[in-house]
Amino acid sequence: MPVTAADLVAQARARIREIAPQALHAQPQPSVLIDVREPAEFQTGHLAGAVNIPRGVLEFQVEAHPAVANVSDPALAHKTQAIVLYCRTGGRAALAALSLQQMGFTQACSLAGGIDGWIAAGLPVTQR
């Protein structure tokens, strides 16, 4: 039986951890932030310190990205780093978090509500 995109997102959300915008903002030690939106979306505003790896190429590029690969100390196990993925409303990020979990990333989670939820909570975005 065929499933819809909404079904896939619901299935992913049932298998991943989501973090509320306020909880992420309150964390003293920031996670690696990955914005899985397209580059044009990223340029309209994003979370400070986020790296842009679009959803369509995430699985192919995530392990090579310096923010994730921890090139400053190769001995560190990069697959255990805390990674928070986000998109506009959370659907793409939920799918991305599930995909990274399947690739062995043990601390991948999704920002609940995406950047829209972040903005609705009154939290800052940047265009730099």
From TrEMBL:
Residues 27-127 form the Rhodanese domain. One of its GO terms (molecular function) is thiosulfate-cyanide sulfurtransferase activity. This is Rhodanese-like domain-containing protein. It comes from Cognatiluteimonas weifangensis.
